């Protein structure tokens, strides 16, 4: 059994993939070809945002967003310690300081009630992560940010396609960022990502930053990076985008089925009333996680842990001075969380087998 099955989806859209990719091979515009603009237009329309800027990865999307906002040495960015390292890593790479705020114990997203007390004169942005497929509480976070004149960057690497109060992930803040890593809800066959904004000036800056800060050939008003999305990846994503809305619904059905069957035996995902989730991961909390994982592995059921060590306890962030106990909710969840297989084409038969194995392991 696969943890994530990409082959079934590929077989379903093989004709469209081949056609799209062959067209790129024929015109030969491998960098910034017409498929890139087509993808950006369609993604902007999907989210309801004015500008989509495709980029080379979800990590680079965060970096480009912060560069556009002028974040640098000595600045602070508030974010969650319970996430993949890329979020804190990009803040630190710019010479800024990640300022961690603990998570809500139900949604695992940034706890808005703790954000305001973390704001200082050096705070240049708030970066909530929309973890596991559902958006953070953006109305509450945006209200705090507005009071202090601080931009908000959504790390929507896991939530593209989800909604919050009827609005799409990546259309909820100053800049939304997402990833097209192959395992994401909308994933390519390599690295890729995008930034979204309604702000014309920020959009212009981000477009320049992704091509070495260039506004026209060999003229560089800004310091930038090589952050472009390959045309072949754009072509692949266009083929996948045709069935994306259908797959989002399928993910929702599978996630809901898991919760219905497992809610009496473990802590299942809590989807806030304002939210829909794309279930980028389906995560439960268990005691004796090592034993649980070993039991499922013995029955051929793969699992993963997203994430076992919060960022404030990562060796790379020792210099920040955080210690064990500083973010108790994140630490507790990190010690108990485990992900079960989920993808749009997970059959009900296979899912029932996973549930059966999980219940036996939890008994």
> What oligomeric state do these chains adopt?
single chain
Strand order of the largest sheet: 1-9-8-5
Uncertain segments of ≥5 residues (pLDDT<50)?
A: none
Q: Based on helices, strands and strand pairing, what is the structural class?
A: alpha/beta
CATH topology of the largest domain: Aspartate Aminotransferase, domain 2
What coarse outline follows from CA principal-axis ratios?
globular
Question: Beta-strand level of the residues, as a percent range?
Answer: 5-15%
At the first level of CATH, the class of the largest domain is Alpha Beta
Question: Could you describe the 3D structure shown?
Answer:
- This protein is α/β, with parallel strands linked by helices and 363 residues long.
- It has two domains: 7-100 and 108-241, Aspartate Aminotransferase, domain 2, CATH 3.40.640; 244-362, Alpha-Beta Complex (Aspartate Aminotransferase, domain 1), CATH 3.90.1150.
- It is built from twelve helices and eleven strands.
- The chain has helices at residues 7-12, 14-27, 34-47, 58-68, 86-93, 138-148, 200-209, 231-241, 244-262, 289-298, 328-336, 348-362, and strands at residues 51-55, 76-79, 97-100, 123-127, 153-155, 163-164, 167-168, 175-179, 193-197, 282-285, 337-340.
- It has a four-stranded mixed β-sheet. A three-stranded parallel β-sheet has the order 3-2-4, covered by helices on one side.
- A hairpin with a 2-residue loop joins strand 6 and strand 7.
- Helix 2 (14-27) packs antiparallel against helix 8 and helix 4 (58-68) runs parallel beside helix 5.
- It is globular, with a radius of gyration of 20 Å.
- The protein starts with 6 loop residues before the first helix and ends with a helix.
- 48% of the residues are buried.
- The model has no long low-confidence stretch (mean pLDDT 98).
């Amino acid at each position: 059994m696969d943890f994530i099955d990409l082959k079934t989806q590929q077989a379903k859209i093989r004709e469209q993939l081949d056609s799209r990719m062959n067209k790129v091979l024929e015109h030969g515009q491998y960098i910034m070809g017409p498929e890139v603009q087509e993808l950006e237009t369609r993604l902007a329309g999907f989210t309801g945002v004015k500008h989509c800027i495709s980029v080379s990865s979800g990590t680079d999307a965060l970096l480009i967003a912060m560069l556009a906002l002028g974040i640098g040495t000595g600045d602070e960015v508030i974010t969650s310690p319970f996430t993949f390292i890329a979020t804190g890593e990009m803040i630190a790479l710019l010479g800024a300081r990640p300022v961690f705020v603990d998570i809500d114990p139900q949604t695992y997203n940034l706890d808005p009630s703790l954000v305001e007390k973390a704001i200082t004169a050096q705070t240049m942005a708030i970066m909530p992560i929309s973890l596991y497929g559902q958006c953070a509480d953006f109305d509450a976070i945006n209200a705090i940010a507005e009071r202090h004149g601080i931009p908000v960057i959504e790390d929507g690497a896991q939530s593209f396609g989800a909604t919050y109060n009827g609005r799409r992930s990546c259309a909820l803040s100053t800049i939304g960022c997402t990833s097209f890593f192959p395992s994401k809800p909308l994933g390519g066959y390599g690295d890729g990502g995008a930034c979204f904004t309604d702000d014309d000036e920020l959009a212009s800056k981000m477009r320049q930053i992704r091509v070495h800060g260039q506004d026209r050939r060999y003229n560089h008003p800004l310091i930038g990076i090589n952050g472009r999305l390959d045309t072949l990846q754009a072509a692949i994503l266009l083929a996948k985008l045709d069935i994306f809305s259908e797959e989002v619904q399928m993910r929702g059905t599978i996630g809901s089925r898991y919760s219905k069957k497992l809610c009496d035996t473990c802590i299942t995902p809590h989807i806030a009333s304002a939210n829909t989730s794309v279930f980028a991961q389906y995560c439960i909390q268990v005691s004796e996680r090592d034993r649980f994982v070993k039991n499922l592995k013995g029955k051929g059921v793969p699992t993963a842990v997203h994430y076992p060590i919060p960022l404030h306890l990562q060796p790379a962030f020792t210099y920040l001075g955080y210690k064990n106990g500083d973010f108790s909710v994140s630490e507790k969840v990190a010690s108990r969380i485990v992900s079960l297989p989920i993808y749009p084409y997970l059959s009900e038969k296979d899912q029932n087998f996973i549930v059966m194995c999980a219940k036996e392991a939890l008994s």
